[in-house]
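Support request, please re-run this one:
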Amino acid sequence: MNTPLRETPPKMVIDVHHITAQQLQMLGMSQMAYIKPVKTQDGVAYAIHAADGTPMALATDPNSAIEAIHEHQMAAALVH
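Re-run finished. Output below.
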């Protein structure tokens, strides 16, 4: 019996050094958050954003930001 070949969808390759907000969102907004250093009146803080760029929280240091992301069962990515 001839079984039709199933085509596999093409795999998308993303350069993480030049990732767009749309590509980051495609990676899984509910599973990933990114941390970005930002300047505040009190010095440097670490902004936590959802994969689509939605601001979620602000932390005083990168380790606290990573812990907060992991507490919500998400993967953390650092952006600088």
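The first strand starts at residue 32 and ends at 40. The longest helix spans residues 62-71.
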